[in-house]
C-alpha cells in the first residue's frame, strides 16, 4: 500500500510540491484551489466544516456550467435516465475511463456534475472516456443505482470493438457519492456478475473525495450534511449500511488497483485509511493521498480542478495511471 501517512514524502509527493507553508493571507478558497498535498500526521488534523450558503451556491453554479463538449450520446438501457456520453480515443485499443458523478445519489447528471478539465486532460492523453447518467433516488434505491452503472459498463464492453477501446482495461472514476459507487463496484463483484462482466477487467478505481467507505461509521464520522445524506440514501439499518460499504467487501476479488484522492475532510480521511488497510490485507494495490481544501470548498475544487496540470492531484493521478493503466501497453 502506498499511503501519504508517512512522515517522509514519496517521490510523487515531492513532485507535487507538498508541505509548503500556508501564507497567512491565503483564504480558504485560495488554499483549496491551490490544493497542495498534505502528508504525515497533518492529514488527521481537525478541519472546519463551515461554508456560507452563498459560496456553496457559487460552487454548484460553477460545476453546473462547466460541462464537457464533444462526445457522442448513447443509450445503455430502457430507463429514461439510462444514457451515457462517450469520447473515442485518439489511439487504437486504448483504456477507457468511466466516470460516475456525485450528488448524494439524488442530484446531478452525466454532464453538469463532472468537471470538464478531467475529460479534456484524459482524452488528450489518449484514453477513451465515458460519463454515465443513472436514475436518482428516491425513484430507485442506491443498490439499483449501482447496478445501473454496472450495466452501463457492460454495454460499453459489449460494444468495445466498434467504439475502439480495450475492453480488458477499464478505469472507474467517481466523485463524492459517485466515488462510493465506483469503490463499491470495485470491491463487491455481485453487481458486475449480474451485468455479465467480470471484475477482473476493472484494472483501476480512482475515488475523488469519496465518502461512505464505511457507511455505518459515516453517521458518526461526518455529522451534519454528509451524515444526513447517508441516512436519506441508505437508511439506518446496520445490516444494509454494512452491505453498502466498500470496506466490508474488500476481501477480494477486487479491482486491480485503487487510487484514493481525498481533500482535508477529517471523517472521510479516517475511512479512506481504513479502506486502504482492508484493500492491502486482501493483496490489492492501493495509493492514498490527501490535498488541501476543507469542507465543501475542497470537495468541489477537486472535482472542478482535477485535470488542470497546475492542480497537484492531477500529477499524482497521471503518474499513478502510467504505472497501472498506461495508454500504450509495454513492449513484449
TrEMBL record:
Cited InterPro entries: AB_hydrolase_fold, BD-FAE-like_dom, GDXG_lipolytic_enzyme
GO molecular function: hydrolase activity
Source taxon at top rank: Eukaryota
GO biological process, any: antibiotic biosynthetic process
Keyword terms: Hydrolase
SUPFAM superfamilies membership: alpha/beta-Hydrolases (SSF53474)
Domain BD-FAE-like: start-end pairs: 93-190
Protein name: BD-FAE-like domain-containing protein
Source organism of the structure: Penicillium hordei
PANTHER family for the chain: AB HYDROLASE SUPERFAMILY PROTEIN C4A8.06C, KYNURENINE FORMAMIDASE
Pfam families: BD-FAE (PF20434)
Amino acid at each position: 500500500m502506498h499511503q501519504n501517512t508517512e512522515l517522509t514524502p514519496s517521490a510523487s509527493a515531492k513532485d507535487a510540491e507538498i508541505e509548503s507553508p500556508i501564507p497567512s493571507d491565503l483564504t480558504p478558497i485560495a488554499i483549496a484551489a491551490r490544493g497542495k498535498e498534505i502528508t504525515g500526521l497533518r492529514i488527521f488534523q481537525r478541519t472546519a466544516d463551515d461554508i456560507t450558503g452563498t459560496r456553496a451556491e457559487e460552487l454548484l453554479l460553477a460545476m453546473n456550467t462547466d460541462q464537457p463538449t464533444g462526445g457522442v450520446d448513447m443509450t445503455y438501457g430502457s430507463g429514461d435516465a439510462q444514457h451515457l456520453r462517450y469520447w473515442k480515443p485518439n489511439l487504437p485499443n486504448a483504456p477507457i475511463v468511466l466516470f460516475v458523478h456525485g450528488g448524494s445519489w439524488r442530484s446531478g447528471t452525466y454532464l453538469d456534475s463532472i468537471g470538464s478539465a478531467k475529460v479534456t486532460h484524459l482524452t488528450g492523453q489518449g484514453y477513451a472516456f465515458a460519463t454515465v447518467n443513472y436514475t436518482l433516488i428516491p425513484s430507485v434505491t442506491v443498490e439499483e443505482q449501482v447496478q445501473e452503472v454496472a450495466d452501463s459498463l457492460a454495454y460499453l464492453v459489449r460494444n468495445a470493438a466498434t467504439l475502439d477501446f480495450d475492453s480488458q482495461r477499464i478505469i472507474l472514476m467517481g466523485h463524492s457519492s459517485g466515488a462510493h459507487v465506483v469503490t463499491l463496484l470495485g470491491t463487491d463483484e455481485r453487481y458486475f456478475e449480474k451485468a455479465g462482466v467480470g471484475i477482473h477487467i476493472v484494472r483501476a478505481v480512482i475515488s475523488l473525495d469519496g465518502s461512505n467507505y464505511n457507511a455505518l461509521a459515516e453517521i458518526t464520522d461526518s455529522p451534519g450534511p454528509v451524515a444526513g445524506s447517508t441516512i436519506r440514501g441508505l437508511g439506518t439499518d446496520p445490516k444494509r449500511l454494512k452491505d453498502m460499504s466498500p470496506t466490508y467487501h474488500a476481501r477480494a476479488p477486487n479491482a486491480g488497483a485503487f487510487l484514493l484522492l481525498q481533500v482535508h475532510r477529517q471523517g472521510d480521511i479516517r475511512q479512506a485509511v481504513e479502506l486502504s488497510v482492508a484493500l492491502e490485507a486482501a493483496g490489492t494495490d492501493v495509493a492514498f493521498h490527501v490535498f488541501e481544501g476543507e469542507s465543501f470548498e475542497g470537495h468541489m475544487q477537486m472535482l472542478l480542478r482535477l485535470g488542470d496540470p497546475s492542480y497537484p492531484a492531477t500529477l499524482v493521478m497521471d503518474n499513478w495511471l502510467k504505472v497501472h493503466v498506461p495508454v500504450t501497453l509495454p513492449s513484449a
